[in-house]
Amino acid sequence: MRLATGLRSLWRAKVNRRSIYTAAQTSPVDEYRKRMLPQFAYEPFASRHIGPRPDEVNNMLALLGYANMEPFIANVLPQDLPECSSGVEMKGLPVPLTESEMLATIRHYASMNKIKKSYIGLGYYGTITPAVIQRCILENPAWYTQYTPYQPEISQGRLESLLNFQTMISELTGMEVANASLLDEGTAAAEAMVMLFYHGGQKKPLFLVDRMIFPQTIACLQTRAEFFGIKIKLINREDDIDSDAFGVLFQYPDILGGINIYNCIQKAKSRGVGVVCAADLLALCMLKSPGSIGADVVVGSTQRFGVPMGYGGPHAAYFAARDEYRRKFPGRIVGISQDAAGRRALRLTLQTREQHIRRDKATSNICTAQALLANVAAMYAIYHGPLGLKKIASRVHQQAVLVANAAQKFGHDLINECFFDTVIIKPKTSITAAEMKKLAESYNVLLGSIGDEMVSISLDETVTDEDIKILLNILAMQPDLQSDVFAILEGTPSGAIGIPDEMKRNDNFMPQNVFNSYHSETEMMRYMNQLQSKDLSLVHSMIPLGSCTMKLNSATEMRTLSLPEFQDIHPFSPPANLGGYGLVMKELKEYLCAITGFEGVSLMPNSGAQGEYTGLLVMRAYHRASGQGSRNICLIPVSAHGTNPASATMAGLKVVPVKCNPMGGVELSDLEEKIKAHRDQLACIMITFPSTFGVFDEGMKRVAELVHTAGGLVYMDGANMNAQLGLCRPADFGVDVCHLNLHKTFCIPHGGGGPGAGPICVSAKLAPFLPTHPAIPHGSPKAIGPVSAAPFGSASILPISWAFIRMMGEDGLRKSSQIALLNANYMMKRLDGHYKILYQNPSKLCAHEFIIDCRPFKGTGNIDVLDIAKRLQVLHRV
Prior knowledge:
Elements (H helix, E strand, L loop, with lengths): L1 H15 L11 H9 L9 H4 L4 H11 L4 H8 L22 H13 L5 E3 L11 H8 L2 H4 L11 H18 L3 E2 L6 H17 L4 E5 L4 H11 L5 E5 L11 E6 L9 H9 L3 E6 L17 E5 L15 E5 L11 E6 L5 E6 L4 H5 L12 H39 L3 E2 L7 E5 L6 H10 L2 E6 L3 E5 L6 H12 L8 H4 L32 H12 L22 H4 L5 H4 L11 H18 L3 E3 L5 H18 L7 E5 L5 H8 L3 E5 L9 H10 L4 E7 L11 H10 L3 E6 L18 E4 L19 E3 L35 H34 L4 E2 L14 E2 L1 H7 L3 H13 L1
Parallel strand pairs: 1-13, 3-4, 3-5, 5-6, 6-7, 16-17, 16-18, 18-19, 19-20
Antiparallel strand pairs: 2-8, 7-8, 9-10, 11-12, 12-14, 13-14, 15-21, 20-21, 22-23
Subunit structure: The glycine cleavage system is composed of four proteins: P, T, L and H.
GO biological process, one term: glycine decarboxylation via glycine cleavage system
Subcellular location: Mitochondrion
């Protein structure tokens, strides 16, 4: 009894003192363990996370000829990094927590986030995730542990779901082709701009942007345009369209809620200017589709189709266009094909991996998309069907009309009479917009603002009658209004038109059987389970595909996704209300710095490839600030990831390939020759470490020295960081920037091709150039513009990585990398002799992966690599 009481009192004291464990603190629970519980064996989380048991580890080491782990690791790691043989200290990582302790801590952090009813809008809205979808997809490892469906034989279920997503988008937008999702609306708009540019606008690089576009989208466009040589010009609706422009972007509905863009589109079409429309999907259930009024490309977010706001992400963006652009599409497209027996089969098609194939000729570097969230949005549409979506949209619109009329009743000016869900008012002269927003906050309500004089109110499907009453009290500026607020409006002439007849949608959409069949929970559950049964995921077996290594996405880590205090948060909420988010992000940055040895971190990039792009922009900004803006050569070894040259091209760099030696490392003589040829223009080298050839480069320190001596910087692709945790740190061997795939090394699930998070870590001299954001400014005056629509990218999944590190601790992280290296070498040893291994280091060892050369079997038995891959798939399912 005394023991239990002591633990409870310590934990209570910990919570009351906020017990936010920073790098320099030890938790009360840790102190209690040391003082009171020395007799108990303490099982750390790492023993659950790491698969092989101690006897299995010893057996694997014995097969490789080692008595223990340390000499094995010494021979795997490069010989020019001798200090790494016994590992490096990751100063700043706290003592690991147990699973229950971590959950108590993260719940305490969550309690520090103040949930307020948001009417801010601007592309982010409250939504209701149907429980059957949350349970069967978002919380189901058979869906969230899948890898990208590059191998269709084990991916037919999720490919069907993504095809449903594409069909939904095409139906709602009126476009002929849609892809299988992008990262967010801001970057989707940037992809549309670049696609039109390459489609025929390179001779007239002017892109027009309506001032009524969401501000985060404008900022993303400006960041992307710079190194493509595209000039962005902001225009007003009434302005003439410049025929020298290759494209123009309109918002539908716009930042003022306006929906009258038909004349604008027709004016642009008459000038031969391509039209991009950023459209709200729920609005398109009631408004004419962009395709029907002349748009060429339509982009937007599917967030309000059942995906929580999550402080900005992850959310699946959509991208649709006319058929003539099919070959220029960014990202992935699911297509219908046939299998060997003539049956319908689905597969990724067209330019699915063009960045890997075309490398520096690629027009996009998209690798991760938001597939899991696209599946959620598709299932939301299937669950509600077209009639259900119309009902939701109609209710939201009717509430908006009611609010608009109430605002006029209480003497405020209505700025826009035509709208779908967003009402813009100018408060009557006796009060200010700031006063109205302050009153709203006393009700735990967040209103949006347009400048200093106008208030915006964006309605969504979560708004109840009680919420409307509170809004009317705020508009009346009478906190204790006791009368029936709805009765106040009776007999009041309607000043709001809402949707004029000429803009109302009058065609049927989504007639396909899949959208009109699964409206009961039983039917929906069975359909999702049917699709799930066609796929391979970590619930079935390991996934030995490429260097994108799969880690356990533990149930404890994933439980953070079910906390409303992290999910029901608008990304433009005042940071002062979000102490829990602030602490998670602050500590995660500290942990990533301890692991990599760097001084600065940006959490904004929401994919690995976007992290590459961000890191390159930061380096370019540094060179420019140093008076070296003309440096534009990027050296890339042929062993680097395929997205590297694509990212470099997007950053305005000229790619120069560097040869590799027979062991898979950089050929130093070729590197020296390339540096000599481009010394004055050398911006950087991008190197993957360990490389895609499956080995640690033996000359990494020398590579960094050569590049630095010539005035360049070193970028390390950190996708394979799982082979380095606690063994070596990029900053220690000369790297200036690296990105980290949190959806690989740090346990955020792949989700069939996303969600993703690709933060970058940088040295102190580059930290001032990390990106900022117009809505939530952060960083220094030297910061580059935003690379994603939300200030902190895929913020809602960051607690997963925080929890992983917090429970693993320094020793657990180090052991996870040791075991990754051991597993790969054990498998290689078992297969060596039966198969040819392409690359090994001088000790005949690999890193965390290895490459088998299957080419000889083509001549001896007419067996190629796909035959072997398919047989492996069958064995995995047995």
